[in-house]
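Researcher: Please predict.
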Amino acid sequence: MKLFEPCCFDGLELRNRLVMPPMCMYSARAGLAHDFHVVHYGTRAFGGTALIIIEATGVLPNGRISDQCLGLWQDAQIEPLRRVVDACHAGGSRVAVQLAHAGRKCTAREAVQVVAPSRIRFSDDAAYRDPDALTPLEIETVVEAFAAAAARAALTGADALEIHAAHGYLIHQFLSPLANHRADAFGGSTANRTRFLARVLEAVRHEWPAPRPLLLRVSANDYAEGGITPAEMAAIVRSIRSRITLLHVSSGGLLPIAPPAPPGFQVPYAAELRQACGVPVIAVGGITTIAQAEEILQAGRADLIAMGRELLRNPYLPLNAGHQLHAPQPVPRQYERAYA
């Protein structure tokens, strides 16, 4: 089965094609990882997942989604996260850290200021606040925060980075004309709206130099008139293609509306961007069975498969499925008797 074949992307060697996508656990304290994170991620590593992407990790205190989100805005947060990375490595997985800034979707009450490209509130829900529009100088401060967080991520021993440009968070807010009403060099045309993402990738690459793998997560569709479409996202990705290794294709999140979500609902976007941009892609969203994952790979619609909720339900899915389907995976020495 292709799903259980080893593969490699810019030196990122994976034992199979199964990915644990970043899923916020809302369990950090002052941005610090602790024992829960070691067990949570380590279990999926020992269960056979090839690539584990650690949940959204704020590059600034007001870059967190909540007060309980992970962070890498200060050196004290390096060592706790290194424990998580070490646990995953002990289980045989490769690890990526997802760097993020929530922008106007920040609900952290410890954050003094909420920021966005423009003064447009995410929703009327009391959890959200009116954001301040970032000045050009403040934009550069955020760019520098991404770079500093990348340097700290390198010290955790992580194998890759993922930049979060999806789900309505700050980079996505700059990309979409529905959230970005700026009249300066960071607003207006697609090229201008992409400028912030390009600056972040450029700054991160100084601290995370090629060929170290750099992943990018995007929302391919805003599901609203005047918002980002798959065709525009393809143009955006092509403009920064040389800076990334893998594209993680999601959708929605910019507006408080739920997208239609039948099984595999985002796979067509992954396939479209893979074809249009010539970049390896991770498909995610409503993929729950091994047969479904294998069909996506065999059809050439994606290169890697991310399973989120299914890995929450069954952390040993890769080992168990590989055993049942006669596609054996490397088994931790301690568990060999179970798969003999």
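Model: The mean pLDDT is 97.
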